[in-house]
Amino acid sequence: MFANSHPYDPATKYDPTLEEESLSETEDAKAEIFTEIQDVKDVVPTAEAQQSYTFPLCSMVKVGTGTICMIPHAYCYYKPTVSGSPTYCDDAPYPTQKFMLVKWGEDWSDLNGHCLVLAGDVTTYNGTKEIEAAYKTQIGICP
Q: Which of 5, 27, 115, 116 has a beta carbon 3.0–4.6 Å from 71's, enabling a disulfide?
């Protein structure tokens, strides 16, 4: 009648320790997953692995998701006179971009003209999708 929908016999009387054990196992599983990713660099695939993957365009990725995506040709420019000294890497020349990578306080304009593979959380700023990078290890150059 219950077709294995319960981890224990449905006739078992309520026991709060069963719920506690189940929650504890779930939390342990989550902790194990997150300890496997020690550093952001573990998120971006190696150059060898990138050759066998097809990545979605960053401009097509849903907002609010953590992702690995691609900018086929990055238009990168450093703005040292702007507050926060950002580097922007857009997927098209400004102001026609649909996606931008932002790095605050560092000059990453050396990425200009490259195909980039990015890892991070997609958000929006003034209607444009973006990933704010914390480390250069979140970025790979396409093979």
A: 116
Instruction: List the structure tokens of 43.
Output: 């998120």
By the 10 Å C-beta count (0-12 exposed, 13-18 middle, 19+ buried), 115 is classed as middle
Task: Please give the full DSSP string across 72-100, using - where no structure is assigned.
Answer: SS-EEEE-TTSTT-EEEEESSSTTS-SEE
| Per-residue tokens: 50 | 């990138």
Answer yes or no: is 137 within a domain.
yes
List, for residues 95-140, the tens digit of each pLDDT value.
999 999 999 999 999 999 999 999 999 999 999 999 999 998 899 9
CATH number of the domain where residue 134 is located: 2.40.50
User: Is 10 a domain residue?
Assistant: no
d(Cα 143, Cα 141) in Å, to the nearest integer? Answer: 6
Does residue 30 sit within a domain?
no
Which is nearest to 70 in space by CA: 10, 127, 122, 18?
122
Q: What does the chain come to in residues?
A: 143
- Does residue 51 belong to any structural domain of this protein? yes
Query: Of 57, 31, 39, 67, whose CA–CA distance to 136 is shortest?
Result: 39
Q: Would you state the structure tokens that stand for residue 113, as one six-digit string?
A: 């003209």
Residue 32 has pLDDT above 50, yes or no: no
